[in-house]
Specification:
Blueprint: E1 2-4, E2 10-13, H1 17-28, E3 34-36, E4 48-51, H2 53-61, H3 65-68, E5 73-75, E6 77-82, E7 88-93, H4 97-100, E8 104-108, H5 109-122, E9 126-128, E10 133-138, E11 143-147, E12 152-155, E13 157-160, E14 178-191, E15 203-206, E16 211-216, E17 223-231, H6 237-245, H7 247-258, H8 267-275, E18 282-288, E19 302-304, H9 307-310, H10 319-336, H11 346-374, H12 381-398, H13 405-408, E20 423-425
Parallel strand pairs: 2-3, 2-13, 3-9, 6-15, 13-19
Antiparallel strand pairs: 1-20, 4-8, 5-8, 6-7, 10-11, 11-12, 14-17, 14-18, 15-16, 16-17
Helix pairs in contact: 1-5, 1-10, 2-10, 7-8, 10-11
Length: 426
């Protein structure tokens, strides 16, 4: 009699963007992980994403790009303007159909996650909601997960895709994220007709106190999302949650910062802060988290990806893209691990995956960190003018690709077809 080997059991902790993408790529390779998510099925994801071509290439590999394209605003050029006088500092390509094969896509984070989630459910992947991991035990022969409520389950491998405040990460590193000094307040919406028709969109205003962005969020550009990056003090996670739920306070912070009589901001910024719909406003605290020296536990049975391993500066627009790239490439490792054991050493394959990903992630992180620096306050008008002049020189020298070509042209493909599962004879 012949039976099919079940192979290793795999748990993915976190049904966010990276975790769901990994599960879908595993499904392409005939691997069936179990996904655990601490939140409920109906939990909403706030805010918006700017998905660059390297992120869209991964989503295309999953067959989801064309589903997502009409649900967001496709664009190529992002314009930088001075808040002092609305003068143009420069522009960069965030995407290009001709150059990279994809535009950039401004889209709701919730829409992206729900699209991934729907695809996972249609594939009949096992997703366990309301399953909050309380501890992880990494033994030589398996990994045990304990959940709130006392349930305990064991797996051959566990992938931590549970974000910047990862519970799974604690089995590998004691490092915790530190406060960056900046938060984003965004998600506000205003009709395009209420924004100066001559204003190039999307755009980012560089001000002395902070940065302010406007980006359309629907395919026809008729709705504009506005948001600001603001320096502020640290808060506890509970305080951040409370602030995010207080839409009136978030709107008040934007108005106080941009609308008082001595504010440096142009009238178009003041207008959207006063009239824009505040009900969709969200807060996004920015934390610093180093790229960990290791994303793999001592037994090679616990692996981290996405923000759990390497939180990216939110202002760089690379967080989701790096998680998607991690997922596509890690799925290849697991797909290879289904071949006859003599063909592959899983520990060696994981180490090679980590080394390759760490090299790229460190370079991307260092490059995009400069974007955070341009959004910080300056101490004087002279310093602000000098900063804008140096930005102008940078754009002039680098050209339209802004130095991003090596990031955006990268295409990380996951497994393309089902792997052969070895058979056991009985």
């Amino acid at each position: 009699m012949t039976k099919v080997s079940q192979g290793p059991t795999i748990a993915i902790v976190g049904a966010g963007l990276g975790g769901l993408a990994l599960a879908l790529f595993m499904h392409q390779a005939g691997i069936h992980p179990t996904i655990f998510e601490g939140r409920s099925r109906t939990a909403a994801d706030g805010g918006y994403l700017a998905l660059a071509p390297n992120a869209l290439a991964v989503l295309d590999d999953l067959g989801l790009y064309h589903d997502l394209l009409p649900k967001g605003f496709a664009y190529e050029e992002l314009t930088f303007l001075s808040a002092r006088n609305c003068s143009r500092i420069g522009a960069v390509l965030n995407g290009s159909q001709a150059k990279y094969g994809y535009p950039a896509l401004r889209i709701s984070r919730h829409v992206v996650r729900q699209t991934l989630l729907q695809a996972a459910e249609e594939a009949k992947l096992q997703i366990r909601f309301d399953s909050k991991v309380t501890s992880v035990e990494d033994a030589n022969d398996c990994v045990s997960l304990s959940f709130q409520g006392g349930v305990r389950r064991s797996f051959t491998y566990v992938v931590g895709a549970d974000g910047i405040h990862s519970r799974v990460r604690r089995i590998i590193s004691s490092l915790e994220p530190t406060w960056s000094g900046q938060m984003g307040i965004g998600g506000g919406l205003v009709p395009r007709r209420e924004v100066d028709e001559n204003l190039p969109l999307p755009c980012i205003f560089t001000g002395r106190s902070n940065a302010f962005m406007m980006m359309p969020t629907v395919a026809d550009g008729s709705i504009v999302n506005f948001f600001a990056t603001i320096e502020t003090g640290a808060r506890s996670r509970e305080e951040w949650t409370k602030l995010g739920e207080d839409k009136a306070q978030l709107a008040g912070i934007l108005k106080e910062r941009h609308c008082h009589k001595d504010a440096e901001w142009p009238e178009v910024v003041k207008k959207v802060c006063k009239t824009g719909d505040a009900n969709s406003l969200t807060v996004w605290p920015h934390f610093h988290a180093p790229v960990l020296d290791s994303w793999i536990s001592r037994t090679s049975r616990v692996i981290l990806l996405g923000d759990a391993a390497h939180a990216m500066p939110p202002s760089g627009g690379s967080g989701a893209a790096m998680a998607f790239e991690d997922a596509a490439s890690l799925a290849q490792v697991f797909a290879g691990n289904k071949r006859p054991e003599a063909e592959i050493d899983p520990t060696s394959a994981l180490q090679q995956w980590q080394n390759q990903r760490q090299e790229r992630v460190r370079k991307v992180r260092a490059f995009t960190a400069t974007s955070s620096a341009t959004r910080k306050a300056t101490s004087s008008w002279l310093q602000q003018i000098v900063k804008e002049y140096l930005m102008w020189i940078y754009f002039l020298v680098k050209g339209k690709d802004g130095g991003f070509a090596w990031i955006y042209s990268h295409k990380e493909q996951g497994p393309r077809r089902l792997s052969t599962i070895p058979e056991e004879k009985e």
